[in-house]
Write a structure and sequence with these properties.
By secondary structure, the chain is an all-alpha fold. It contains four helices and no strands. The relative contact order is 0.12. The longest helix has 24 residues. The chain has one domain.
Length: 102
């Protein structure tokens, strides 16, 4: 799953590939747990190192990762909670940025 590494554009492409696989039902169910763990790791990376709270493209990647995680019964409730927190953090960052907008 190296297509999820190496920058925002590669990550976005990788998310699209996994979205297509999961959405089509072509992902082997035996692999879904491993894929979900990779998605979680990417989500944590995007939020920590990828500036998901301050850059639009990484916010979009984070939202797409959460959407994929919501499709897995084992991670749906955690993903929904994380999504609410991400939206709250992003709103707070946007608000603080507009306060200092010249």
């Amino acid at each position: 799953m190296g297509f999820l590494t190496g920058g925002t554009q590669k990550r976005s492409s990788g998310i699209g590939i996994l979205d297509a696989l999961i959405g089509s039902g072509d992902l082997d169910p035996a692999l879904r747990g491993a894929v979900d763990r990779v998605l979680w790791n990417q989500l944590m990376y995007v939020c920590d190192e990828g500036n998901a709270l301050t850059t639009t493209h990484e916010q979009h990647n984070a939202q797409r990762l959460v959407a994929l995680l919501r499709t897995a019964p084992s991670t749906r409730s955690i993903a929904e909670d994380f999504e609410r927190r991400l939206e709250g953090y992003a709103a707070a960052v946007r608000a603080s940025c507009t306060e200092f907008d010249p």
